[in-house]
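Worked example 3. Consider a protein that binds beta-L-arabinofuranose.
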Amino acid sequence: MCYRYHRRGVTGVAPQREPRLRRVPPARKEGSIMRRTISVALTAALAAVLLLVGAAPASAAHHLTDGSSVNLIARHSGKCADVVSASTANAAEVGQYTCNGGLNQLWRIRDLGNGYVQLAARHSDQCLDVDGASTANGAKVIQWPCSSGTNQQWRIELTGTGHTRLTARHSGKCLEVASASTANGARLQQRDCGTGTDQQWELDLVSNPAIPGLFADPNIVRFGDTYYLYATTDGFAGWSGTRFRAFSSKDLVHWTDHGVILDVAADIAWADNSAWAPGIAERNGEYYFYFSAGKAGGDTRKHLGVAVADSPTGPFRDALGRPLVSAGTYAGQMIDPAVFTDADGRSYLYWGQGSSHQVPLNTDMVSFNASQVRTYQPANYNEGTFVVERGGAYYFMWSENDTRSEDYRVAYATGSSPTGPWSSRVGVILQKDLSQGIKGTGHHSVVQVPGTDQWYIAYHRFAIPNGDGTHRETMIDRLHFNADGTIRPVVPTLEGIEPL
Ligand code: FUB
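Given these inputs, the predicted complex is written out as structure tokens:
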């Protein structure tokens, strides 16, 4: 499959999808930008949006759809359209700034079905808007709550170079960088359309963070023909959030939010906080949702619970009316459950922090034989166990260091069965990449595209900008195996993956 890419003014058709083009923030590696493309989608929904003003690329890629998130990169400067200071206030100015992976530079496309789109900033959900619906040249561009105003409606026109122009519906004028400045902070405005490269924009598809908002400890799984993500809702001091949401996707890029599927404060009698790190498995049409949670006052330690529903999007109800594994039953914290189901249909539960435990689940999925619980303690183990199988080899993966550390990372061992025996630690799969400003990469899960050797890793990292151990975002990147079965270190990316 081909896709168009843009690399420092050169466009072309990439011969193959691998290796992926990786975006390097220009501030750090000026002159060596390798951006993933302008992948302008000619989907049914967006085809009407694109008014071809130049020679249309013969094989324009089919990636931008309603709901896609993009960086808007000014051709003359290579800088990103950016809501100043990541403000969430109405009327905050939009300028250009060095591309840095921030949500205030990420714009979600809403296809209005009338030949125009809205562009909503991911950090604020406010729309790119010509201030006061002015029709004057030089009118500034701001963010404003999305409305039906035609000063928030933009037509995407392809130029002959594979770039685009963005024309405001109410004025017919083009989005540009004031005075064709190349400086950080130069504001965006509208002006009569011309041929200047300061009115030309690269639409750079960005799929990371995979889901908007603060989410950590993602568990990615496929049920039927659909992928699902479940995660810790982040952004609370002491990880004190109570709610789990479910997200689904057919292509790993466009995710639907199904809302809250379990609120431990409302739905679980023995808990009222610390809804952490879920895992999920299906058996006979029932979905079993494993989670950790605690109760304020008295013994505040975390327990491991299980809830059940007849749909992967819930609503889930407590399966037992008590924890599946109570605090203190085994060494360490009773948190971070994950389930692996082997080809023979048997499911295994893994959990623990400080100490790692594993046990075959009974077929009811809500009990196990305590005499079969085994503890495996690889070097540097902290938490977040996840197990997969490939070609008869089993991979036991975990997170090292503290989630509040930028050195939070994922390592692995291998074994010949779902319960080992496991090798000693083989090495690190995923870690920070300071050259991209990526920190605290860990608590992951892995999913395989059925019938292929295509694997994806979901994990969290510190939010960009200003994230830390309780302000984390969920990413999805590729995971590759080497010919000898070892796992190639994952390259964490700011821009994410191509849709399946
Ligand atoms: O999200 C709360 C806790 O942080 C998880 O249980 C740990 O794995 C760590 O990511």
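Take a moment to read the result before moving on. The CA atoms of residues 240 and 316 lie 20 Å apart. The chain has two domains: 44-206, 215-479.
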